[in-house]
C-alpha cells in the first residue's frame, strides 16, 4: 500500500494581545514558553506533527505561514529543535486564515504532488500528544480519500469563547452538520449536553481539495491569491507573495469562506473527535487552567514566593515575585511592565494593549529583550541622551554594515571575540577590550568564532531610536 504524503502547515501569525505583557506584537505568544518544558508553543506544534509519521504516513518538512517581522524568530526556533522547514510563507499583510491556507496549498502543489495538509495554529497547547497524533492519523486517512476533516475538540465545560460543531455519528468519522457561532452561557450548556464539539481551527485535507472547494465557494479569494503567488519572490527558505497583489486579497476565515459552504460545494465534510487536553491559551486564565497547580491551586513560573494564596497564577521573568494573601488573581512580571488582574477578567487585557497603542507606548510592541536574526539585545538602562544594551551575537553571525546620524557608540567585549569594522579598519577584540564608534561612521560587529559573542553597548546622542540606522550591507536582506 502506497504511503500518504503529509505536509504540516503551521499558522504562526497573530499577536496574542490577551497575554500581554509577556506577549508583544514583536514577540507574540506562539513563540513563548508558556507550559512546562523549554519549547515554545510554536516548537511544540511542529514537534507534534513531525511525530504523526507511521508505516502509512510519510511526513514532510513543515510549511510555516508567518509574516516578515517574525521570519527570523520562526526560523531560529525551528533550527533550535533541528527542524529545517520546507518554506516560510511570508504574508505582507494579514488577510485571515483562508488566504493563508491557500498560499500553503499552492506551495505544497508546486512540486507536482498533491499531499494531505495538516493545518494547525501555532499558539495552542495539547497535553496528550499520543491521542492528538492518533486523531491526526485517522483524519489523514480520510482526507487522502478526498474528505475535508476537522478535528473537533471534545469540551470539558461550557464555554462562550469558542464556536461549536454539530455532527452526526457514528465515529470516529462524524458527518459535520452545522457550525454555530460563539453562544451565550445557557446555549453553551445545551450544546455540551447535546454532544457538540469546539472548533479549534485544526483541519486536514488534500491541497487539491482545498483549492477546488475555494474555487467554488470564494473564487475571488482563490484568484487573487494565485495572482500574488504568481508574482512571488523566493529568497532561500523565504517565499514572499507580491505585496500589492496580496493586499488586494479579500480577508476571510477558513470557516466562513469554505467550511460553512461545503455542502453546496459538494465536499465531504467530516469530523474526528480530539480529546487530548487542548487549550488555545486565549487569556491568562486559560494558561492557569493548562498549568500544573500545587495543592492550593496555584500555578507559578520563575522565581516566586507565595504565602496564603489560592488559585493564583504568577509568572516572573526577571526578579523575585512575592505574592501574599491573594486568591483568583493573575500576576505577570516582565522587565518593563507588570500585570495584576483577577483571573475572571483576564480577557480584558486586550483593552490595556489598545490603550497603550493609542498612547504610542512601546510596551505593546517589543519586549525589553529583542530578538534579531543575528542574536538578541536587551536594553538594560536608558536616560536622557544615553542607552545601555547587552548584545549577544550568535556564532557566524554579524550585524549589518551601518551608520547612525544622531548617536555615537562604545562597545565593550564581555565574552567571545568580536570582529569590529570602523570606517576602513577591521580589528579583533577579546574580553575586556573596547572600541568607540563616532557619530556618522560606518561600522559593523561580527562573530567569526564558534561560541557566542557578548558585548555591552553604550549609546550617547540626541536621538537613540532604533530607526536611526542607515544600512549599507545586510546578509539578512533588511533595508533601512
Molecular structure report:
By secondary structure, this protein is an alpha/beta fold. The protein has 12 helices and 31 strands. The strands form 7 sheets. Strands 21-22-23-30-25-28 form a 6-stranded antiparallel β-sheet, with no helix packed on it. It has a 5-stranded mixed β-barrel with strand order 7-10-8-9-13. The chain has a 4-stranded mixed β-sheet with strand order 15-17-19-20, covered by helices on one side. Helix 1 links the parallel strand 1 and strand 2. Helix 3 crosses helix 6, helix 3 packs across helix 7 and helix 6 crosses helix 7.
Strand content is 25-35%
What helical percentage do the residues reach?
A: 10-25%
Ranges where pLDDT stays below 50 over 5 or more residues in a row are none
> How many H/I helices?
12
Biggest beta sheet summary: 6 strands, antiparallel
Class derived from helix and strand content: alpha/beta
**Total number of strands:** 31
Rounded Rg:
24 Å
**What is the average of the pLDDT values?**
93
Q: Identify the strand order in the major beta sheet.
A: 21-22-23-30-25-28
- What spatial form do the alpha-carbon principal axes imply? globular
Quaternary: single chain
Amino- and carboxy-terminal Cα gap:
54 Å
